[in-house]
Amino acid sequence: NRPGIKWERHGNDVLSAWVADMDVEVPDFIKEAVIERIEVGGLGYGFYDEPIPVLEAFKSRMDTAFGWNVDTEDVMRVHDVIQGLEWVLHTLTPPGSEIVVQTPVYPPFYSSVEGTGRGWVANPLLENEDGWALDFDHLDEVAARDNVSALLLCHPHNPCGYVMTAADLAQIIEIAERNNLLVISDEIHCDLVYSPHRHVPTASISELAAQRTVTLTAATKTFNMAGLRMAFIHSSSRQYSPQLKEIRPRMIGGINGLGQVATVAGWEEGDAWIADLVEGLDHNRHLLAELLREHLPQIRYRPPQATYLSWLDCRELGLGDDPAEIFMSRGKVALNSGLDFGIEGTGYVRLNFATSPEMLTMIVERMASAV
Fold first, then answer.
1. pTM
2. Distance (Å, rounded) from C-alpha 185 to C-alpha 68?
3. 113: closest CA among 82, 79, 136, 156?
4. Which listed residue, 60, 236, 240, 314, has the most CB atoms within 10 A of its CB?
5. Pairing of strands 126-128, 182-186
6. What share of the chain is helix, strand, coil (3-state, %, to 5)?
7. pLDDT tens across 136-195, in order?
8. CATH superfamily for domain 5-27+271-369
């Protein structure tokens, strides 16, 4: 009965494990902050005069969580990460140029690149004993193409849950520097990383990285509040930052005041809540492995290093190119089609395990009944 597209789109008889919303309640400290703002009449124009609380909260959060020192003057507020991505592509890459994406990848990367009149070049991830890795040899090759203007990172990676290390990021920056490329780093899943892995902001690893990188992020994924529409663009690059700020403010529009209030509350009060959330998600990613071994041993699954999204190889089930359609039509389980994530997703599905263990069990049992 939870409102929103995750549970409303497919009907009451379908178990939903598709779009990246969690089946968890928004934390009380965020609800209380939002309600208090409403009760004091704070729904008018606000958050225009410095210091801007949400920018100060961004600065503090990046420092305490990731050891990344940022200046608020280098941060822009936008409504969501994809709006930010489209503005970055529009402003900092030439029309008709190509953007390298690490595939399979979050579907709006493709549509945003194409929708802004750019093309994309695939650099498929490699599967290894530890999960996934970047193909640096291939990245080096495609990055050198004359028409390539940027490297687009999903960090941590959606749908594979791959967490890039500081060494990985250093290689990416080296390739970008050698080929004079922009690096765009979508880091919205940064809080949802499982030990012993840790998130390293791309722009934080060196001054060279800071000059090459534009970062996109938000608190909305962490605190399950995508509907409050609040995100950030950060760049301290002497080349990129002034260009990004040339946008007319009304082209972005006033940023949701309640989204800003919620973000400040989350980042100022949410450390313990995040730790509990990640502990629960960690349990579920391992529970999913157990359930698949019991009910669908043909599915190949590598527990993600981050996110609450699992990338399931269903090819041995013999369900064709789009097993998500079979799981829906026969099992009444809504999953994301792997095909939406690129050609590498043929025979795959993405399953969102951010739900109760009981619901996750029912989801896998229904999937098994469809085979």
1. 0.97
2. 15
3. 82
4. 314
5. unpaired
6. 45, 15, 40
7. 999 999 999 999 999 999 999 999 999 999 999 999 999 999 999 999 999 999 999 999
8. Aspartate Aminotransferase, domain 1 (3.90.1150.10)
